[in-house]
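Narrative summary of target 7.
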Amino acid sequence: MAIKIIKSEDGVSRIISDSYSVLNLLTASDSDNVSLAVSSANNHDETTKTTSDRVYYVLEGELTVDDNLVAKKGDVVFVSANTEYNFKGSFKAVLINSPPFKKTNESISKL
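Modeled conformation, tokenized:
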């Protein structure tokens, strides 16, 4: 299918921890190239690594990466594939992965 609309109410919520959740909207079952989710964090602190390029587009709040890069509403954070990084804060962000997110391709070393 070349064009598809995915309604927010059709997204699948995934609770990562008490402080972080993700609403999966576009997944590997929709595309071999990209996935999209909306992530929500409340005083979250995590170190992770993924085999995908990752983009955070901050909708609200503040997202701090590796203790020195601070992204606020309207900012974009780009993380290259296979880069371990720490992210923390209270924020809501669009999260894009290319290739699409697969839980088996991500390792969390601190949650």
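The first strand starts at residue 12 and ends at 17.
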